C-alpha cells in the first residue's frame, strides 16, 4: 500500500482490488480509522474488454457502446450495498471501513485504459490517435473507448448524498477530486476529467449510497467543444466577464471570498445554479488550499438550500466542468453546474420534442425567480439548522 500525506491533514492510502483495479482511501484529518486496510480476498471474473466508440457522422459525436453496463446493480438493500464496506455476508467493492474511497468502476463506459497505464487491464486495440483523429469525420468510424471511470464513495453509510456530509468530510472529498484529477490527467490518451454526482431516482440513480463518479474521457466532450468555440468567438477572458456580469445581477445566490454561486442569465432548467471561483483555475488540481477550505462549507450550504425547496429531497446532477487536459487551460475555468428537472413539488421537466430532438430549449422559470427561491430556501435551511442545534445549556460538558 502506498501512503501519501495530502493537504488539510488528509491521508491517502492506495492499493488494489482482487482483479487489479485501483482503490484509494482518503482518510479524514480527524479519522477514527487505523492505518491498516483489509485485503480484497474475493475471486472475481476477469475485467471486461474495453468498450468501443462509434462516431455519429452527422454531429461528429463519439458514442460509447458498453454492453457490460446492462448488468449493473439496481437499488440494492443495505445488506447488499456494493459500496458499503465488505462484511462476511456482503462481498462489496470496498474491502475496509473507510471515510472516503475511490475505485475503478467494475462496469465502465470508458476503459480500462492502456495496459501499461493500469497493469492488469486489457490493452486497447484501436485507441484514438489524438484530437485531430477524433475530429475527422467519416462513415463507420470506430475507436476503442480508452479512459477511466471511477466511483467516489462519500461515506460508508448506505444512504445520503454529498449534502448530508459534514464540512470535514466534504473537504476530504474535494481533496480526492483534486488528487484524482491530477492523476488521471497523466494517463495516456485522456483528454478531459469530469467529477459529478447524480442524486435521486428521477435522475436515474441506481444506488442510494452517497457517492459520485469521475469520468476520464478520451476526447473533449461536445459541451466543452462548444464552450471553446464560444471563447474563440468572444474573448479569452470570457469566464471573468461572465462572473463580473453575474455578480452585478440579482441572480447571485451567495458570494464568498473565493467563490460565487449564481443562477445563470440563460438558465435552461427549472433549477440551475453555477458555482465559480473568483480567479482563473482550470481544474480542481489547480485550486489552492484556501479555495478548497472555503468550498466545503459553501457547497454544502448550496446543496442543503436546494433540498429545502420542497418537503422531499431534490433530484439533481452536480456537474463539475474542468478545462480539458491538453487545450483551453488558460481560458476554460473550473465551475459547478447544478441542475434539477424538478419544476414543482410533484412535477418534473421532461425533455420532449424540441429540447431532446432539436436542442432548442424553453424555460418555465425565470433565472431571477429561480435565484430568489434558492436564496429563500438557503435561509430557511440555515434557520432550521440553527433552531435544532443544542444550546449551551444542552451541550454536554
UniProtKB/TrEMBL annotation:
<feature type="domain" description="Galactose-1-phosphate uridyl transferase C-terminal">
    <location>
        <begin position="247"/>
        <end position="377"/>
    </location>
</feature>
<keyword id="KW-0299">Galactose metabolism</keyword>
<comment type="similarity">
    <text>Belongs to the galactose-1-phosphate uridylyltransferase type 1 family.</text>
</comment>
<feature type="domain" description="Galactose-1-phosphate uridyl transferase N-terminal">
    <location>
        <begin position="55"/>
        <end position="220"/>
    </location>
</feature>
<dbReference type="InterPro" id="IPR005849">
    <property type="entry name" value="GalP_Utransf_N"/>
</dbReference>
<dbReference type="InterPro" id="IPR019779">
    <property type="entry name" value="GalP_UDPtransf1_His-AS"/>
</dbReference>
<dbReference type="GO" id="GO:0016779">
    <property type="term" value="F:nucleotidyltransferase activity"/>
</dbReference>
<keyword id="KW-0862">Zinc</keyword>
<protein>
    <recommendedName>
        <fullName>Galactose-1-phosphate uridylyltransferase</fullName>
        <ecNumber>2.7.7.12</ecNumber>
    </recommendedName>
</protein>
<keyword id="KW-0548">Nucleotidyltransferase</keyword>
<dbReference type="InterPro" id="IPR001937">
    <property type="entry name" value="GalP_UDPtransf1"/>
</dbReference>
<dbReference type="InterPro" id="IPR005850">
    <property type="entry name" value="GalP_Utransf_C"/>
</dbReference>
<dbReference type="Pfam" id="PF02744">
    <property type="entry name" value="GalP_UDP_tr_C"/>
</dbReference>
<comment type="pathway">
    <text>Carbohydrate metabolism; galactose metabolism.</text>
</comment>
<dbReference type="Pfam" id="PF01087">
    <property type="entry name" value="GalP_UDP_transf"/>
</dbReference>
<dbReference type="InterPro" id="IPR036265">
    <property type="entry name" value="HIT-like_sf"/>
</dbReference>
<keyword id="KW-0808">Transferase</keyword>
<keyword id="KW-0119">Carbohydrate metabolism</keyword>
<keyword id="KW-0479">Metal-binding</keyword>
Amino acid at each position: 500500500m502506498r501512503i501519501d500525506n495530502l493537504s488539510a491533514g488528509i491521508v491517502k492510502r492506495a492499493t488494489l482490488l482482487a482483479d487489479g483495479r485501483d482503490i484509494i482511501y482518503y482518510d479524514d484529518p480527524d479519522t477514527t480509522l487505523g492505518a491498516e486496510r483489509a485485503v480484497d480476498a474475493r475471486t472475481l471474473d476477469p475485467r471486461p474488454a474495453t468498450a468501443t466508440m462509434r462516431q455519429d457522422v452527422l454531429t461528429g459525436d463519439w458514442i460509447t457502446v458498453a454492453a457490460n453496463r446492462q448488468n449493473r446493480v439496481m437499488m440494492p438493500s443495505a445488506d447488499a450495498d456494493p459500496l458499503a464496506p465488505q462484511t462476511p455476508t456482503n462481498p462489496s467493492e470496498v474491502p475496509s471501513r473507510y471515510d472516503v474511497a475511490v475505485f475503478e468502476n467494475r462496469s465502465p463506459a470508458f476503459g480500462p485504459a492502456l495496459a501499461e497505464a493500469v497493469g492488469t487491464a486489457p490493452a486497447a486495440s484501436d485507441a484514438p490517435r489524438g484530437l485531430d483523429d477524433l475530429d475527422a469525420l467519416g462513415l463507420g468510424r470506430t475507436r476503442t473507448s480508452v479512459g477511466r471511470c471511477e466511483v467516489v464513495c462519500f461515506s460508508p453509510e448506505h444512504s445520503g448524498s454529498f449534502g448530508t456530509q459534514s464540512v470535514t468530510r466534504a473537504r476530504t472529498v474535494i481533496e480526492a477530486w483534486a488528487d484524482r484529477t491530477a492523476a488521471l490527467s497523466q494517463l495516456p490518451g485522456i483528454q478531459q476529467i469530469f467529477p459529478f454526482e447524480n442524486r435521486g431516482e428521477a435522475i436515474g440513480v441506481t444506488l442510494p449510497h452517497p457517492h459520485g463518479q469521475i469520468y476520464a474521457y478520451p476526447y473533449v466532450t461536445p459541451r466543452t467543444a462548444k464552450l471553446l468555440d464560444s471563447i474563440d468567438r468572444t474573448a479569452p477572458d470570457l469566464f471573468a466577464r461572465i462572473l463580473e456580469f453575474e455578480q452585478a445581477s440579482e441572480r447571485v445566490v451567495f458570494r464568498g471570498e473565493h467563490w460565487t454561486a449564481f443562477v445563470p442569465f440563460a438558465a435552461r432548467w427549472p433549477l440551475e445554479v453555477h458555482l465559480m471561483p473568483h480567479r482563473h483555475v482550470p481544474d480542481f488540481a489547480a485550486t489552492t488550499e484556501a479555495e478548497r477550505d472555503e468550498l466545503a462549507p459553501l457547497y454544502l450550504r448550496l446543496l442543503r438550500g436546494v433540498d429545502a425547496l420542497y418537503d422531499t429531497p431534490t433530484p439533481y446532477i452536480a456537474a463539475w466542468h474542468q478545462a480539458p487536459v491538453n487545450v483551453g487551460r488558460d481560458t476554460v475555468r473550473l465551475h459547478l453546474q447544478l441542475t434539477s428537472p424538478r419544476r414543482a413539488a410533484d412535477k418534473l421537466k421532461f425533455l420532449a420534442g424540441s429540447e431532446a430532438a432539436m436542442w432548442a430549449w424553453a424555460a418555465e422559470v425565470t433565472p431571477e425567480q429561480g435565484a430568489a427561491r434558492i436564496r429563500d430556501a438557503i435561509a430557511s435551511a440555515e434557520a432550521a439548522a440553527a433552531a435544532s442545534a443544542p444550546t449551551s445549556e444542552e451541550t454536554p460538558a
